[in-house]
Design brief:
The chain is of the alpha+beta class. Helix 4 packs antiparallel against helix 5 and helix 12 packs antiparallel against helix 13.
Length: about 650
């Protein structure tokens, strides 16, 4: 076994690898950028080496610098995690040439699966079913449009070197093909340095089911399947194992196909074979097709670990160190069910825009597995993926595991950045999802219901008002701190949530506290370690976080304390101003001064957090000024385009 390994990554996956390695008695070396000098993975590792600036290209993508760090610290092997250099065959070659071990597959195996079109051809030869489509070298628009016509709409345009939903576009009408193609090619060129695409048939009611494989370079086994159908914008949101509705016949067929795929390329280490499955008539053995193979550890690997009892990182280290496969296929079994929810800093109502911010408060329940690379007080950086944590729950049955996930999300507390926490909670309460009726279109179909902002309960406002009053905030009815002698034991509190303002007054009463919110009066009493509002135990916990107050529970409500001295800008003052929603790179500007635009027209494209975001006009008008150009790096809130006053 290795004495010391270097982890060429950051965030939660670096922490995950470090913890398993240390449990095996293996010392660890972290690498970090300027932005990650105080990061959790740096604190966890036995040693840490600075490798460059905050941009990935200046740090986590600098393979030569990472290899230097490994050699300088005496590391014997490099674990790539996922993302960054994990599927870069040139990096694998460089690691091997330096006399180090790459904890993962060979460069040849990565190359074999690196381009989707070549991988599909290879899979066809290995007897693995593939989706009908075009994977040719002719990338002319007219030729690709003709291929799409022959395949039959709807079709999916996908970057051949793609992943994570980048360079992917769904086209349902031939008239939209050319624009979607240009957009996909542009995003692919930016993300992967390769603009080539393939065209494939779009399955009408698709499910995304993937099989975890593990090989030693000759033989391979599978560790059953995961269902990753719950997606938005081609990004996974909640994953589970095993897949709902899976039959033993289907599981055997998919598992055997995945093993054939792995053995066809002499695969070593952990990998995932992803299949697109037609779920319109239940799961059947002639209704699944190879989509791609990820030649690395997957983000969602914890659900497989939960149902098999296997530590996949431990297996990676053991096989990379020269051991044989730790188990035979017949030794592997499924026990129970597991879910993983990806908690992100993102603005769901704004279309899942990635967000930044300082995590002033962060707490998780003890009964769930939490894989996270951040701690309370850390800042979500604009340079990297905005994941806060993976919340993983397990149970003897799917319904128990899902109930535990709902409870775990309700007990998760985050303040300091907008998150998708309430959205995840809404998904756990979705009736169709609870029944196992999952497909990749579920979120899009029920988007409005899943993202609806519920009315703030008066009890939540009362909890926030109580938290704002020192005498009541600690739940101690006997304390009069904050009230003056001979004055009524009453205090005013102004709260604001979104555009709604609440005028509150908190006063002592005979049994506890009298709370008035606008015209509503409530009686609050602290007993049995909780607040009771009008005789019912309050569902939530209120905490002062910075200048605001957050009420945590099944739905989180963040209140601000309005500053009476602040001067509010006139209504509509910024209606004609297009701002950068986050720090990023201006990829394109589509308008010029004097041009007439309609509401919803594309004005510019901003690249941030590895994704492209289209900025559109909020109203009809005339472009007054263009304040940014393609290639500009801008900060959040920077003015990009102005429209003339109406």
């Amino acid at each position: 076994m290795f004495r010391k390994i270097l982890i060429a990554n950051r965030g939660e996956i670096a922490c995950r690898v470090i913890l398993s390695a240390q449990a095996m008695g293996v010392r660890t070396v972290a690498v970090y950028s300027d932005a990650d000098a105080d990061a959790r993975h740096v604190a966890l590792a036995d040693e840490a080496v600075h490798i460059g600036g905050p941009r990935p290209a200046d740090s986590y993508l600098k393979g030569a610098r990472i290899i230097e760090a490994a050699l300088a610290t005496g590391a014997q092997a490099i674990h790539p995690g996922y993302g960054f250099l994990s599927e870069n065959p040139d990096f694998v070659d460089a690691v091997t040439k330096a006399g180090l071990v790459f904890i993962g597959p060979s460069a040849e195996a990565i190359r074999a699966m690196g381009l989707k079109d070549a991988a599909k051809a290879l899979m066809q030869e290995a007897g693995v079913p593939v989706v009908p489509g075009y994977q040719g070298e002719n990338q002319q628009t007219a030729h690709l449009a003709q291929a799409a016509q022959e395949i039959g709409y709807p079709v999916l345009i996908k970057a051949v070197a793609g992943g994570g939903g980048k360079g992917m576009r769904l086209v349902e009408d031939p008239k939209d093909f050319a624009e979607a193609l240009a957009s996909a090619q542009g995003e692919a060129a930016t993300a992967f340095g390769n603009a080539n695409v393939l065209i494939e048939k779009y399955i009408q009611r698709p499910r995304h089911i993937e099989v975890q494989v593990f090989g030693d370079g000759t033989k391979a086994v599978h560790l059953f399947e995961r269902d990753c159908s719950l997606q938005r914008r081609h990004q996974k949101v909640i994953e589970e194992a095993p897949a709902p509705g899976m039959t033993e016949e289907m599981r055997a067929a998919m598992g055997q196909a995945a093993v054939r795929a792995a053995e066809a390329i002499g695969y070593a280490g952990a990998g995932t074979v992803e299949f697109i499955v037609d779920g319109s008539e239940g799961l059947r053995t002639d209704g699944f097709w190879f989509m791609e193979m990820n030649t690395r550890l997957q983000v969602e690997h914890p659900v497989t670990e939960a149902i098999t009892g296997v530590d996949l990182v431990e297996w990676q280290l053991r096989v990379a160190a020269g051991e044989a496969l730790p188990a035979r296929q017949e030794d592997l079994t499924i026990t129970g069910h597991a879910f993983e929810a990806r908690l992100y800093a993102e603005d769901v109502p704004a279309g899942f825009l990635p967000a930044t911010g300082t995590l002033h408060h962060l707490a998780f329940p003890e009964f769930a597995r939490i894989d996270s690379g951040v701690r309370q007080g850390d800042t979500i950086s604009p340079w990297y993926d905005p994941m806060i944590a993976k919340v993983v729950t397990y149970g003897p049955t799917r319904s128990v595991a899902l109930a535990r996930l709902e409870a775990a999300l309700a007990a998760t507390q985050v303040a300091g950045s907008v998150t998708n926490l309430d959205f995840l909670g809404a998904l756990t309460r979705h009736e169709g999802f609870a029944r196992g009726e999952v497909d990749t279109g579920l979120i899009a179909r029920d988007y409005d219901a899943l993202t609806a902002q519920p009315e703030v309960p008066m009890a939540s406002v009362a909890l926030a008002a109580l938290a704002a009053v020192p005498a009541a905030g600690a739940g101690e009815a006997g304390s009069d701190a904050g009230f003056t002698l001979w004055a009524p034991l009453s205090q005013s509190v102004a709260l604001k949530h979104g555009e709604t303002e609440y005028d509150c007054r908190v006063a002592r009463s005979e049994t506890g506290w009298d709370v008035r919110v606008n015209d509503t009066r409530m009686e609050a009493e602290w007993r049995a370690g909780a607040w009771w509002i009008d005789g019912a135990r309050a569902q939530g916990e209120a905490l002062q976080v910075g200048a605001g107050i957050s009420v945590f529970g099944a739905v989180t409500v963040h209140f601000t304390r309005p500053d009476p001295l602040a001067v509010e800008a006139g209504a509509g003052a910024s209606a004609g101003l297009v701002l950068a929603p986050m720090p990023g790179l201006v990829k394109a500007v589509f308008v010029q001064a004097g041009e007439q635009v309609e509401k919803g027209a594309r004005l510019a494209v901003l690249e941030a957090m590895k994704m492209e975001h289209t900025l559109t006009a909020g109203r009809d008008g005339t472009v007054e000024d263009v304040l940014a150009k393609a290639g500009d790096q801008v900060e959040a809130g920077a003015a990009l385009i102005t429209l003339a006053d109406e």
